[in-house]
Design goal:
Elements (H helix, E strand, L loop, with lengths): L9 E4 L5 H12 L3 E6 L2 H13 L3 E6 L5 H15 L4 E4 L14 H29 L3 E6 L2 H5 L5 H20 L5 E8 L13 H8 L6 H6 L5 H5 L1 H6 L10 E5 L2 E5 L16 H7 L22
Parallel strand pairs: 1-2, 1-4, 2-3, 4-5, 5-6, 6-7
Antiparallel strand pairs: 7-8
Helix pairs in contact: 3-4, 4-6
Length: about 300
């Protein structure tokens, strides 16, 4: 394959002051794209821009919390004002407010859903309007999570938002196909502020911070690595090499890349004339419910010492 070249393309990456978002912004810029960096902290955003420009890339900062239509319009407008167009949107911005259901407040739920789900919706809508007006297609890359694919204890708000993001990617891939705008969800797994406190990962992440490599059981078995390990997927999906890829959920982390399945029926049973509660009770465990689906993110398989 020829080198991935995004020269002439303009991108917006929300929540790109640090962590995964910064890695995505760096990867896009390294392959020639001009990038609007977004964060709620001006100093963090400006430092991110500095790191990109010092590496030879082109970037500007737009400091605004995503969620509202006004914020989305500002981000798209900044790309157009600075670079003349918008070709790529990466919706990475997010926060956590983890609590079990009976302790989660309305504010906990609303804050996470507003940033992740509504922020993805408003930014994607504004980007789609611009991309359709300018013609030539475009790329929407929506950032999901294993929690949205499988559920996760203590993350009602986050899991619900990320599941919704995957559903929006499938829906928008159909709606925007005629405009040649691809839409995919990515499912990254990396050592970030959101994951490095997981007890099973913590000692390995701490060792990595000290310069030690992550072991293969994490990089390959769990698909867990650094934010930079996840970044290659973004310029690939933004490139002409990925023009035929849309409506997918793609996982990446460590040494692993994977395609997630869409929800689908796995087993069915039938009753002439329809089902009664009693018939369901009688048939469930030997037919459609014989192998119930698992939930939650599987615990890491840590090798015995």
């Amino acid at each position: 394959m020829p080198p991935i070249d995004l020269t002439g393309k303009a991108a917006v990456v929300t929540g790109s002051g640090r962590g995964l978002g910064l890695a995505y912004a760096h990867a896009l810029a390294a392959h020639g794209a001009s990038v609007v960096v977004n964060d709620i902290d001006e100093a963090v955003a400006e430092q991110a821009v500095k790191s990109i420009t010092e590496a030879g890339g082109t970037a500007v900062a737009e400091v605004v919390p995503v969620g509202t239509a006004e914020a989305a319009d500002r981000l798209v407008a900044r790309a157009v004002e600075e670079f003349g167009r918008l070709d790529v949107l990466v919706t990475n911005a997010g926060i956590l407010r983890d609590k079990v259901l009976w302790k989660m407040t309305d504010d906990d739920f609303d804050a996470v859903v507003t940033t992740h789900l509504k922020g993805t919706f408003t930014c994607a809508r504004a980007a789609a309007v611009r991309m359709r007006e300018q013609g030539g297609g475009g790329t929407l890359i929506l950032v999901g999570s294993p929690a949205g694919q499988r559920g996760n204890f203590g993350q009602t708000n986050y899991a619900a938002a990320k599941a919704g993001i995957a559903a929006m990617a499938r829906t928008w891939s159909m709606e925007l196909a005629r405009a040649q705008i691809t839409v995919n969800a990515i499912v990254p797994v990396a050592a970030t502020a959101m994951t490095e406190t997981i007890p099973a990962f913590a000692p390995y992440v701490e060792a990595m911070r000290g310069g030690a490599p992550l072991p293969d059981f994490l990089r390959k078995g769990e698909g867990f690595g650094t934010p930079e390990d996840c970044a290659a997927l973004v310029p690939f999906l933004a490139s002409e090499a990925a023009r035929g890829i849309t409506g997918q959920a793609i996982g990446i982390g460590g040494d692993k890349v994977a395609l997630w399945s869409h929800p689908q029926e796995v087993r069915a049973a039938y009753a002439n004339g329809g089902w009664s509660p009693e018939a369901l009770a009688d048939a469930w465990h030997t037919s459609v419910g014989a192998e119930p689906q698992t939930v939650g993110i599987p615990a890491p398989k840590i090798p015995e010492a």
